[in-house]
Each structure stands twice: as C-alpha cells, then as structure tokens.
C-alpha cells in the first residue's frame, strides 16, 4: 500500500511538474517546493524517517527503503527523490540531541517552517575514513567553541537554515565532537564544487567561527559514537535510489527494444540485446533483495554493518551497469537530453563513491570474513 501511494503521487504530482523543468535542473525553487510538500503532507508522506515520539511517521527501515526506491524514479531522483516533496526529516543525529536543541532546530523542519539542514563530515584529507581524516578544529573558549578549518563534499549546504558539523576536539575517534552551526554565523562561507553530476556539493570554510557551547550535541568527544549507527543505516537507504532509477531505465529500454525496428525485425528479437536486458533484470533483482534483507535485519535489531556494506556496494555498482546497458540499447538517443539516461549515468557514477566508496565497503566485508 505504501509503495502504491508513493507511485501514484509520483505519477500525478512529480512527473508533470518535472516535465516543465530544464533537463539538468537540480532542485526546486521554494515557490515550487512548498506546494508540493503540502500535498505530500496531506497524504502522510512526511518525516518518514523520524520516530513517532518526535512527531514523524516512524517508518521501519524496510518501509523507508520502499519509499526511497519509488521516489527516485524521476529525472532528479538521484539527489532529489520525489523532487524533495517528502521532507520533514532533520539530520538523524538530532534524535540524540537535547530536548532544547531539538525544539529549536529540528522541530521547525518537522513543522515545515524550515526546509533542510546539512551534515558536514568529509574533508579534503579523506572522506572514506572520517574518524581519522577530520582536521577541522574546535577549541573551547569560555561558553563558545572556535572552529577553524574546512569541510568538503557537503550536500544541500548553501541555503540550509543550519547544519551539523563534526570537528576535532581531541585525539582519535574519541576526540570528535558534533556541533549545530547556524546559517549566517560570521566566518562561515560556502563554495560550490563543480562535479560531473547535475547536482553540486559544497566546500565549507570556517575562519574563526564561534559556536555556542550549547550547540554541541552530546558530550565533548562523543560525536562520532553518536553518529555510528546512523552511518550504517544510511548505507542501506543509499542503495535504494540507484536501484529505483536503474529499474526505471530498464523499463524504458524494454519498451524501446520492443518498438524499435532494425534489420528486418524488432530490436527485442535480437538475442544479443535481449540477453543484455535479461542480465540487467537479474542484477537488479539481486541488488533489491540484498537491500531488503539488510533493511529487514536492521528492523529486527541485528548488527547490519556487513549487510549494509554489501547492499550499498552491490546496489550502486549494479545500478550503474544497468544504466550503461540501457544507454547502449537506446543507441545515440540514450546519449541525448531527450531522455534522462545520460543524466542518470552521471549521477549514478557519483553514487559509487558516496556514503563510502565501493572499495571501502569491500574492506568492511573483508574484515568480517577474516575475523
């Protein structure tokens, strides 16, 4: 029922709106986004990841995966599922914040009075091993912390009302703290980083940025421990978007192959082409089941560190291969901006790196094998 509700919303609200926008549009204007979010809220498609005790829908991880898979089936789906309609979720770390912090920063997002917040972990020194790579310093000065350094590859940063920033207050994993940094804080600047995808991340510069000690989430040095569970679960959800996009691409390729006349027959009658699409179907079924299994185990409270890494690794790699196959089947049309395929190809190339590169996920699995 949840899947069908999201699917209908995509067909009735998302696809017609997206059809009016340029091919490489990344995000909606506020005037476009707010009415779309209002429609989603009336259907109960709001704050889906947020626990019920905070006023959200409290979907299980499996439920979140189902929504994410369907919501990705649009041109912007890799970075703006359902064009951003299903909002209301603050950064997950806020569920471990103090009641005062939650009320001040997270509640306005749940209520729709603020649209988004960012999470800044990665740095130029390394994104796949943040516990060791974080060099942004936060030094206590009375009732404030002074932040100096930079962050890289931060999504949805510019225009966000506030963000969660991880900074070093000591040594090792136990020396990382988490801070809420508000937009407009003196010394904080944003630089857009051009990448091959249609959606661009940002570099954040902190030049003597003063943050109230009251904006620290949890104990000093406890930031990475607070985030660890969420980082694992996010890998499962991260796989859903690419899988949904790849399925949509495969559906398009099958329709094209059935209607395309070549060499005296339909393209779908050519065994070489048919088997390419069969292999794509098998890859996506395997990826989807690995993702569902990881989500189900998470809902059962099991340790899913390895399951999540496998789901993320296999899902993003399989989806990228399927998109490549679908472009090949469409021929030159697949390279044009008449179809979303070439945009998806660029976007899914990024997904093989995000939330921990494929090689990092293999390292996680290898450690478990040899343990």
From TrEMBL:
Residues 120-209 form the Acyl-CoA oxidase/dehydrogenase middle domain. PANTHER family: MEDIUM-CHAIN SPECIFIC ACYL-COA DEHYDROGENASE, MITOCHONDRIAL, MEDIUM-CHAIN SPECIFIC ACYL-COA DEHYDROGENASE, MITOCHONDRIAL-RELATED. The keyword Oxidoreductase applies. Its cofactor is FAD. This is Acyl-CoA dehydrogenase family protein. Residues 221-369 form the Acyl-CoA dehydrogenase/oxidase C-terminal domain. Belongs to the acyl-CoA dehydrogenase family. It comes from Gordonia hongkongensis. The lineage of its organism: Bacteria, Bacillati, Actinomycetota, Actinomycetes, Mycobacteriales. Keywords: FAD, Flavoprotein, Oxidoreductase. The keyword Flavoprotein applies. Residues 1-112 form the Acyl-CoA dehydrogenase/oxidase N-terminal domain. InterPro entries: Acyl-CoA_dehydrogenase, Acyl-CoA_Oxase/DH_mid-dom, Acyl-CoA_Oxase/DH_mid-dom_sf, AcylCo_DH-like_C, AcylCo_DH/oxidase_C, AcylCoA_DH/ox_N, AcylCoA_DH/ox_N_sf, AcylCoA_DH/oxidase_NM_dom_sf.
